[in-house]
Amino acid sequence: MGRVKIEIKRIENNTTRQVTFSKRRTGILKKTHELSVLCDAQIGLIIFSSNGKMYQYCTEPFRYIFI
């Protein structure tokens, strides 16, 4: 059995949306770290939640900052 394909749309339930955000945020931070280690890449990642809270990940040393 495979995974069920979900329709990509906004989750209306606030609690479910926050849980999904937390799980996916953890997953993308993990994948970002893995990519930086495996490929010796310098990565900067900034995520803003719907509440306006910022989460960030940056590999060391990060030589270039683009604004």
UniProtKB/TrEMBL annotation:
<dbReference type="Pfam" id="PF00319">
    <property type="entry name" value="SRF-TF"/>
</dbReference>
<dbReference type="GO" id="GO:0000977">
    <property type="term" value="F:RNA polymerase II transcription regulatory region sequence-specific DNA binding"/>
</dbReference>
<dbReference type="InterPro" id="IPR033896">
    <property type="entry name" value="MEF2-like_N"/>
</dbReference>
<keyword id="KW-0238">DNA-binding</keyword>
<dbReference type="GO" id="GO:0045944">
    <property type="term" value="P:positive regulation of transcription by RNA polymerase II"/>
</dbReference>
<dbReference type="GO" id="GO:0046983">
    <property type="term" value="F:protein dimerization activity"/>
</dbReference>
<keyword id="KW-0539">Nucleus</keyword>
<protein>
    <submittedName>
        <fullName>Putative transcription factor MADS-type1 family</fullName>
    </submittedName>
</protein>
<feature type="domain" description="MADS-box">
    <location>
        <begin position="1"/>
        <end position="61"/>
    </location>
</feature>
<keyword id="KW-0805">Transcription regulation</keyword>
<dbReference type="InterPro" id="IPR036879">
    <property type="entry name" value="TF_MADSbox_sf"/>
</dbReference>
<dbReference type="InterPro" id="IPR002100">
    <property type="entry name" value="TF_MADSbox"/>
</dbReference>
<keyword id="KW-0804">Transcription</keyword>
<dbReference type="GO" id="GO:0005634">
    <property type="term" value="C:nucleus"/>
</dbReference>
<dbReference type="InterPro" id="IPR050142">
    <property type="entry name" value="MADS-box/MEF2_TF"/>
</dbReference>
